[in-house]
Specification:
Length: 678
């Protein structure tokens, strides 16, 4: 292992068109913060940089929708995001933004350097252009009819009704979202980064030299490299972004994916005149903390940019996390299925560390993970309150009760005492190894082990029972308990900084040197401590219920919004017509995928009348395993149809959502197969 002299830590630049939520915190910012706090405690030379990513089309679209300028949008969210991070103790040395002048200059120079080396490929293509507004249209600004489902409001990159991804040229009857007029095709020149030329470099640098990267990161890189890279445009026709710094590029800006990662460099420049030491010296360890959606940019594209520019170091590691889900569903900003940080603090003031704890204990390090409010409550009540808080409180209260708040003189140590005292350095080592290998969940668990040891030690030795008979022994027990408290205040500093500070205050200690964990007399005999203050409080059922209700209220609201877009009713039919339809309750006996199709399942059903086979297009909404044993509703007298060589006898009834997702209908309680639906 190489010995580095300094660390440069970056955390993904959040996109400034919305606030941040728990998924961001769990995936990127808490792990990055733990890592940098730990290195600082070890007295390493560390800088930790981040900032808002403020360019790109989604911001201009948001601005247009809200009747504001893009700058007003990013100003608003930059300050909300910055505040949230500060409130959660994310200890950046700088939180910058990509709309400031240092960044414009840095990004322009970066482009120019590669341009002057003839590093880019130039290509002229035909793009859609709005003649009235005299500007080229980003895909999102072209609206037309979806060729698949007929939705008249499909975007140039995607139809949101059927979910198909589209190219603008596929839309029928395309028109500009700005002027409403049909666009013309006009030729335009752009500059491309020839990623394909760097495949051999990546194979050697990542696949051979960085096999220690996390399997999810390494695996994604390998699959990108194996499937072949394509040149990627670094410029685009837009008026929001860093202007292209060359004459021929007038009216064009850098693509946001190109300018954003340069933001790390700009932020460092803004922070210190010594910035080159961090970016241009092989003695620096550069670590990018990101979410999995950013792997390709930080492991493939940005390193190629750095290499082409030529004067920068490459990242040593990119410990990307997977995603955090919320109550079993994907977190979604647009659908408001999220726990927003600024809202959390309104409901749980001063409880930053509870969230930091839960999100670390349950971090999506190797696979997607789920955050639930019940788990949040359980970890608070049975771990933070019952173990860590309870132990510290007892130790401090008893010290005041028996020794006027002074660390007592110890007598002789029993085997049990010695075992506890020697556990400090083993736990320290375990925490270190885990943090250095980006296993933050394990690291936290190890730190928590010391609190468990302390809690058990007091429960086993019961000083309150022997205080009248063996005062000398009580002195030793509390001496040891206070040493545990002192060590806890150091061990928890990277994970729960607010709690660690509170604990140091209680212990009247300024100790913040990691290497002193396990030191003898960390709190010396006769040292005066302050009075006890509860570190954590119980979270009651009603507080949790309120959060769950709040989430479901938001979900209900968004369903209502969608409901306003439902199709109007069909023409009336006679009762006799309805009578012809025979709908029954049935149970799924068997379900399997129809080979070579995405949507079809072959179901064997007990309809009460018979056992029959139905082919149903529900495979994108249900897996076969979910269906077996389930009761459904079937139209039994539909003429049999041949589908993919299978005779389908009837049709399963489903409700169809706005994006084509299907929901099966079933009887409200277990019911007789063959029961008629009238
Ligand atoms: Zn469509």
């Amino acid at each position: 292992m190489k010995n580095f002299q300094r660390y440069l830590i970056t955390a993904a630049l959040p996109y400034a068109n919305g606030p941040v939520h728990i998924g961001h915190l769990a995936g990127v910012y808490i792990p990055a913060d733990i890592y940098s706090r730990y290195l600082r405690l070890k007295k390493e030379d560390v800088i930790f940089v981040c900032g808002s990513d403020e360019h790109g089309v989604p911001i201009t679209i948001r601005a247009q929708k809200e009747g504001k300028t893009p700058q007003e949008i990013v100003d608003k969210y930059h300050s909300i995001i910055k505040n949230s991070f500060a409130e959660f103790g994310i200890n950046f040395d700088i939180y910058s933004r990509t709309t400031n002048s240092v960044h414009y200059e840095t990004a322009s120079n970066f482009f120019k350097t590669i341009f002057e080396k003839n590093g880019f490929i130039e290509k002229t293509t035909e793009n859609f252009f709005d003649e009235e507004r005299q500007q080229f249209l980003a895909d999102r600004y072209i609206i037309g009819t979806c060729p698949r489902c007929g939705n008249e409001k499909a975007y140039g990159d995607q139809c949101e009704k059927c979910g198909t991804s589209l190219a603008p040229s596929e839309l029928l009857n395309p028109h500009s979202a700005l002027s409403g007029k049909p666009p013309i095709l006009k030729s335009t020149k752009h500059w491309y980064l020839p990623l394909d030329k760097f495949e051999n470099f990546l194979k050697k640098w990542i696949l051979e030299e960085h096999q220690e990267w996390k399997p999810n990161v390494y695996g994604q890189c390998k699959s990108w490299i194996d499937s072949g890279l394509q040149p990627r445009a670094v410029s685009r026709d837009l008026n929001w972004g860093v202007p292209l710094p060359i004459e021929e590029g007038k009216g064009k800006v850098l693509y946001v994916w190109f300018d954003a990662p340069i933001g790390y460099i700009s932020a460092t420049k803004e922070l210190t005149e010594d910035w080159e030491k961090y970016w241009k010296s092989e003695d620096t360890k550069l670590v990018h903390f990101i979410g999995k959606d950013n792997i390709v940019f930080h492991c493939i594209i940005f390193p190629i940019m750095l290499k082409m520019e030529g004067s920068y170091i490459l990242p040593e590691n990119v410990p990307a996390n997977e995603f955090l889900n919320l109550e079993g569903e994907k977190i979604s900003t647009s659908q408001n299925w999220a726990v927003w940080l600024h809202e959390y603090l309104e409901d749980f003031p001063q409880k930053q560390d509870v969230l930091r704890y839960v999100l670390t204990a349950n971090a999506p390090e190797t696979k997607d993970n789920d955050f639930t409010w019940k788990d949040f409550q359980a970890r608070n009540n049975s771990e933070l309150v019952a173990v860590l808080g309870n132990f510290v409180n007892r130790a401090v209260v008893l010290t005041h009760k028996y020794f006027e708040g002074k660390v007592p003189q110890y007598d002789s140590f029993s085997d049990y005492d010695k075992e506890v005292l020697t556990s400090f350095s083993q736990i320290k080592k375990n925490v270190e190894e885990n943090i250095e290998n980006f296993h933050f969940r394990e690291a936290l668990k190890e730190a928590m082990n010391l609190a468990r040891i302390g809690n058990k030690y007091l429960a086993d030795t019961e000083p309150w029972k022997i205080v009248k008979t063996d005062f000398l022994r009580v002195q030793t027990i509390l001496y040891i308990s206070l040493q545990i408290c002192g060590n806890l205040s150091l061990l928890f500093e990277p994970f729960l900084p607010f709690t660690a500070a509170k604990l140091r205050k209680m212990l009247n200690s300024n100790e913040i040197n990691w290497e002193n964990i396990g030191k003898e007399n960390l709190l010396p005999v006769n040292h005066q401590i302050e009075t006890a203050e509860l570190l954590f409080a119980q979270i009651e059922d009603k507080e949790i219920e309120k959060q769950i209700e709040k989430l479901h209220f938001a979900k209900q609201q968004r369903l209502q919004q969608t409901a306003s877009q439902v199709k109007s009713a069909k023409q009336n039919i006679s009762y006799d017509d309805f009578q012809k339809i025979d709908i029954r309750v049935a149970t799924v006996l068997k379900a399997e995928k129809v080979a070579k199709t995405k949507k079809l399942l072959q179901l064997t059903l007990d309809t009460g009348i018979d056992t029959r086979i139905v082919v149903s297009g529900i495979a994108e909404s249900y897996s076969p395993e979910q269906l077996i044993g389930k009761q459904v509703v079937i139209l039994v007298n539909l003429e049999p149809r041949e589908i993919k060589g299978i005779t389908s006898q009837g049709m399963i009834l489903t409700a169809e959502g706005q994006n084509g997702e299907l929901c099966l209908l079933s009887p409200e309680k277990l019911f007789m197969n063959g029961a008629e639906i009238k």
